[in-house]
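4.2 Preliminary Data

To establish feasibility before requesting continued support, the project team ran the inverse folding procedure on a target of 346 residues. The structure was first converted into the token representation described in Section 3, and no sequence information of any kind was made available to the design step. The complete token record follows.
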């Protein structure tokens, strides 16, 4: 007999409530109506408890039993199929639950579990993933995400963790991330210098990678993107002419939008991509030179841009970008990206 704990709070009546109700009727002479009102239970339940206790006067007869079905549902997956789901995570721990689901859907296997089945399999088998999500902040104001690619890029810098580099490798390394808001497609630029000069170089290399010049970029207020804090001061070293980043943006015809200070969630898409970098790339990265970092980073960038994303409707950033370019061509006849000319027209 599968008996639950006596202090089970999920049940409508605990073991102690049953025992006291039976004692009130048998030993104290209470009526059923008074007992039901005092212990907040139904009359049929009290009748059933008293009948069980009279037939077998022991605590086990009125103990809480499991509500789990004794027969398995005919459509339920067996243990062998559930183990196949768990083995995919054991073989490749950096894979997310969504990626595991995509693998099953894209394969020729007859076994195609739903996304909720995969979540339930990991939850019931106590499979731990790398990070537990923090409590999300509430944002009431809507954010206007561009409807087409090339409208806005989010740009940010991430420090490469020092734990990833070889012990004899000195210096710091940085990752410039340039993300298109519509498609979430990214360009990664690795450098050993954190300055406005490197920001210009990263943007200059991102334009041929994407195949177009964006209308706007969005950044935080770091010194690698702005020197307004220094220029606002009235001193002999302050200047009024444009810096190298402003000159570059004016030359390319790009508008520069700064987010609110100390509010990184306004650059949420690129910040979320940095979290994915930390979970699936830097957690397993070991590099022995700057060239090695750039080579591994380039492979990761290609993998990221071809991975399906839940937020993109189960499409990869490359697929989402091409879908946007085709929509622009069909509506306006404009070919925004010459790199994708053949794919857009066909």
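Position-by-position output of the design step:
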């Amino acid at each position: 007999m599968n008996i639950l704990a006596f202090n089970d709070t999920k049940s409508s009546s605990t073991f102690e409530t049953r025992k006291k109700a039976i004692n009130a009727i048998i030993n104290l002479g209470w009526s059923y109506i008074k007992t039901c009102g005092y212990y907040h239970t139904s009359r049929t339940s009290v009748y059933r408890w008293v009948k069980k206790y009279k037939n077998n006067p022991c605590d086990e007869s009125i103990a809480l039993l499991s509500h789990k079905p004794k027969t398995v549902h005919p459509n339920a997956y067996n243990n062998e199929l559930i183990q196949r789901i768990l083995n995919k995570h054991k073989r490749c721990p950096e894979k997310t639950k969504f990626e595991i689901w995509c693998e099953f859907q894209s394969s020729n296997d007859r076994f195609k579990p739903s996304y909720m089945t995969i979540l339930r399999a990991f939850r019931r088998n106590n499979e731990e993933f790398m990070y537990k999500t923090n409590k999300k902040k509430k944002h009431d104001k809507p954010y206007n995400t561009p409807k087409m690619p090339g409208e806005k890029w989010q740009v940010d810098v991430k420090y490469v963790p020092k734990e990833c580099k070889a012990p004899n490798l000195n210096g710091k390394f940085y990752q410039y991330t340039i993300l298109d808001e519509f498609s979430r497609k990214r360009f990664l630029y690795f450098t050993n210098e954190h300055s406005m000069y490197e920001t210009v170089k990263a943007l200059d290399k991102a334009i041929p990678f994407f195949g177009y010049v964006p209308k706007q970029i969005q950044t935080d207020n770091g010194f690698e993107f702005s020197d307004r804090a220094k220029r606002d001061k009235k001193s002999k070293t302050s200047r009024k002419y444009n810096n190298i980043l402003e000159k570059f943006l004016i030359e390319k015809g790009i508008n520069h939008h700064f987010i609110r200070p100390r509010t990184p969630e306004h650059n949420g898409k690129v910040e979320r991509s940095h979290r994915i970098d930390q979970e699936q790339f830097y957690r397993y990265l070991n590099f022995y030179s700057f060239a090695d970092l750039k080579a591994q980073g380039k492979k990761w960038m290609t993998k990221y841009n071809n991975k399906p994303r839940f937020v993109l409707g189960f499409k990869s950033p490359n697929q989402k970008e091409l879908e946007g370019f085709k929509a622009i061509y069909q509506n306006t006849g404009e070919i925004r990206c010459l790199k994708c000319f053949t794919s857009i027209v066909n």
